[in-house]
Amino acid sequence: MAKSTSKPIATSKPSKLAKPAAENDSPEKKVSPEQGEELKEVKTTAKATPNKTKSESSEEKIEVTIEKKLVALYSLQQVDSQVDKIRIIRGELPLEVQDLEDEIAGLETRIDNFIQETVALEKSITDKKNAIRDALVLIKKYEDQQMNVRNNREYDSLTKEIEYQNLEIQLSEKRIKEYQGALELKSEEIERHQKLLQDRKNDLDIKRNELDDIVAETEKEESDLIHASEENRKFIEERLLTAYTRIRKNARNGLAVVQIERDACGGCFNKIPPQHQLDIRMHKKIIVCEYCGRILVDDGIVNIIH
Ligand SMILES: [Zn+2]
What we know:
The chain has 5 helices and 7 strands. It is mostly helical. Strand 4 and strand 5 form a beta hairpin. The radius of gyration is 41 Å and the shape is rod-shaped. The chain binds zinc ion.
């Protein structure tokens, strides 16, 4: 039987434990429940393109051993975790940039409002100054009229008018002082907000540059990783990929494939029974943790990759 020369791309060395596919051909074999769960299919043909296959094999489909699938799954997990890491690093920055942009827009609106309030206050001051000027004109007029009154009653009436206008002037002066006080506060607020605005604009420049740098730096790495991820996926059948994606989505840290660590699942840290561990080391079935459902691999699979 032709041995497939195609292998998951993360594997640089030939598989130490590679076995002819026929040895894995036992689809009827079922695991007993105490042995833990097993992802049913044992032998399948993957959709890998046999671009590395030499003339010795003209088959269009390559039989992928369970071991190769495990290697591909573990490689896929490594690559996908790297992509996750890049996205986490980048993930915070666009949000920070967005927050700064929002804050800047808010500050600009507030400054605009302060400026409008300033204009209104200045208009009020002008109005009051005009009122004072009008009152002074009236007082002058009433004083002139007092020179030509015919009786005391007319004189007293004009005196009252003059007093009233003087009160108006005092009131206007009081208001002008209040408006000027408010104006000072407003210009202080404007100054304070403009300083804050400048600081935030500087922060935004820094964050934007940082983001641009990270995007430029990681774009190539990310697309390489995504390419590697796609290459690994070719060795894994659809059903298994769907399971992988589902487990990854539900699992913390996006880990769907984990190593046995100190006789325990590297994902949930529950102990794995010895018989179950033995099955995992055989590389003949895809075995998932009976507690968390993650796909389990042993050092053997990890060493093939590293
Ligand atoms: Zn687990």
